[in-house]
Amino acid sequence: MKCRFINKVGWDKKLVNESYPWVEKQIVHRPKFSPFQSALRDSLIDTGVSPYNGFTYDHIYGTKVGGTIFDRFGRRHTAAELLASGNPDKLTVLVHATVQKIVFDTTGKRPKVVGVIFNDENGKQHEAMLGNDVQSEVILSSGAIGSPQMLLLSGIGPKDELQNLNISVVLNNPFVGKGMIDNPMNNIFVPSNRPVDVSLIQTVGITKKGVYIEASSGFSQSNSSIHCHHGIVSAEIGQLSTIPPKQRSIEAIQAYVKSKRDIPVEAFNGGFVLTKVGSAWSVGELKLNNTNVNDNPTITFNYFSHPYDLQRCVEGIRMTIKVVQSEHFTNYTLCKKESMEKILNISVKANVNFIPRHANDTTSLEQFCKDTVITIWHYHGGCHVGKVVDPDYKVLDVERLRVVDGSTFTESPGTNPQATVMMMGRYMGVKILRDRLGRLAGI
Ligand SMILES: Cc1cc2nc3c(=O)[nH]c(=O)nc-3n(C[C@H](O)[C@H](O)[C@H](O)COP(=O)(O)OP(=O)(O)OC[C@H]3O[C@@H](n4cnc5c(N)ncnc54)[C@H](O)[C@@H]3O)c2cc1C
Fold first, then answer.
1. Which of 85, 19, 8 is nearest to 57 (CA)?
2. CATH code, 334
3. Lesser CB count within 10 Å: N end or C end of the chain?
4. pLDDT by residue for the chain (443 residues), tens digit each?
5. Ligand 1 atom closest to residue 97's alpha carbon, by position in its atom list
6. Ligand 1, closest atom to CA 200?
7. Atom 51 of ligand 1: nearest residue by CA position
8. Are both 150 and 290 inside the same structural domain?
9. Does 145 map to a domain?
10. Phi and psi (nearest 5°) for 327?
């Protein structure tokens, strides 16, 4: 259990302790341990990230091996499988439905949700309306990008921003879309003289410096495209979030394409050891560009705008370099122990993003952090508790609407958040059912 986080959000510990195993039993597995991950484990312990806590779901200082959603046959399991526990007679799942907006009755004292408008896969519009009983409600779980976006599109948000887009204001709440946070990730490249096994994150070092050290390794190549690694893949699919859209000039995109050509050939063999800043303090915001739900909003995370994030990244990179230089890795990858400058130099090239490089990338760890930052996709915020929703995740000053997802977090839980987000789904489901039963029984 992620104790500090659970205390901070004020969840009922007993129900939390029942809800994690409910998820874990259905879709979480013990990983088949790969040699690259063993090298990381041994290097972390030798570098002082101790004690070794073995295989555990607990988030505790030291080095550990965590659970995975890949089973021993390599099959991936997902949150969708948890639906199997539901009662199919009471459940309708519309897989290709895209909600366009939430509809309100604004004639009363407070806006009251009456339903949602959604489009099917053919673009045909439908309405799903709530029943009249007091227990009916809409629960928004569109994630840290989708939920603030949906509230804004539906008229809940900063009045000026809504009016600029001619959206009728249902409720002026200046905090919707604010407090967006993404944990910065920076990679240190581990060169290898031979192809290494493909592995995703299994081992993690949870340091007292506030950074988590994890790794992924091995690549499959086809037609010179690169698959599988966090850093490079994120460069291809997630990179846009690392710089403000206005800075995405033609030159920046050309530099990106060129930098892809410059990826050293060793990058196809080795792996990466990554540093994630645990609880990021730099904060950004999300704003709509238009009223089309299919268009991405603009999100600025302002990576490293808070000096504490930069300080922790530097600490993390320093530790990570020691980890990569340890004999566990050099023996395993058949590479000699390289100097810090050489490791940074190759890592600068192997990390791909749109951010222009600087001459001092290999001599200033601060510059290295800023120039090679990428996302680990653990972004959260936009609908914080106390600002947009109450502690029961009910949208403030609105009736019959909740937000239950990562948009309500002020920090990303655990080393990787999805276990806690899924647990939260079960937790809130049970809590809402209990409340309803209590109400029915007149308690
Ligand atoms: C590429 C990638 C890799 C990741 N890897 C890991 C990992 O290894 N481990 C880990 O712990 N975490 C990982 N994460 C993070 C993790 O997936 C998220 O933290 C988690 O899924 C957040 O859950 P959520 O419920 O808040 O939002 P989501 O899981 O994003 O769920 C939101 C859902 O709402 C849907 N939606 C949005 N808008 C609408 C709309 N208008 N109408 C209908 N549906 C809508 C979306 O399609 C989505 O299905 C990864 C994330 C990404 C993107």
1. 19
2. 3.30.410.40
3. C
4. 457 899 999 999 999 999 999 999 999 999 998 999 999 999 999 999 999 999 999 999 999 999 999 999 989 999 999 999 999 999 999 999 999 999 999 999 999 999 999 999 999 999 999 998 889 999 999 999 999 999 999 999 999 999 999 999 999 999 999 999 999 999 999 989 888 988 989 999 999 999 999 999 986 544 333 344 444 444 433 443 444 555 556 666 566 556 555 555 555 678 999 999 999 999 999 999 999 999 999 999 999 999 999 999 999 999 999 999 999 999 999 899 999 999 999 899 887 788 889 999 999 999 999 999 999 999 999 999 999 999 999 999 999 999 999 999 999 999 999 999 999 999 999 999 999 998 777 76
5. 43
6. 8
7. 377
8. no
9. yes
10. -65, -25
**Residues 231 and 315 reside in one and the same domain:** yes
Verify that 173 and 302 share a domain, yes or no.
no
Domain boundary among 319, 351, 375: 375
- 379-389: b (≥16 Cβ within 10 Å) or e: bbbbbbbebbb
* 143 CA → ligand 1 middle, Å: 6
* Set 229, 378, 380, 384: catalytic member: 378
The number of folded domains in the chain is 2
State in Å: Cα 142 to ligand 1 middle.
8
In a domain, 11, yes or no: no
Pairing state between β 271-277 and 298-300 = unpaired
Domain span holding position 168: 94-180+380-412
Q: Is 418 exposed, middle or buried (0-12, 13-18, 19+ CB in 10 A)?
A: middle
377 lines ligand 1 (CB under 6 A): yes
Residue 353 is assigned to a structural domain of this protein: yes
In angstroms, how far is CA 157 from the centroid of its own chain? 23
CA separation for the pair 31, 45 (Å, rounded): 19
CATH code for position 162: 3.50.50.60
Specify whether 144 is located in the same domain as 190.
no
Residues 295 and 213 grouped into a single domain: yes
Which atom, in ligand 1's list, is nearest to the CA of 233?
1
C-alpha radius of gyration, the chain, whole number: 23
Structure-token pair, residue 246: 């206005």
Residue at 440 is within a domain: no
Q: Are residues 221 and 122 in the same domain?
A: no
